[in-house]
Amino acid sequence: MAVEAIEGGRVSVNDERAKPAKEVKVGDTLSIRRPPFEHRVRVKGLAAQRGPAAVAQALYEETEESRARRTSLAAEMKAIPQPRFPGRPTKKTRRDYERWLRSSDDE
To answer: Which domain holds residue 24?
Structure first.
């Protein structure tokens, strides 16, 4: 998943696009974009080998600015009303919709 995110351009190291072989150092800042959110984390330490998530979480720290931005965006998204669908369309509604689609194709 990490390599896919890096190749997709969703990861930056110190505000430069990351490459899969890029080595990170203690103190580097990573920007990870997982739309619609962006995480900015600072590297606090490096591990010699892959380990449990609890150990990995001790090796980085999310910036306060990033956490605040994500929280406010989540609140905004929650405030937007979800689209409501009244249920299954009737035969008449479906035919009206199909007629409308055909008329918009003619334009």
So the answer is: 2-82
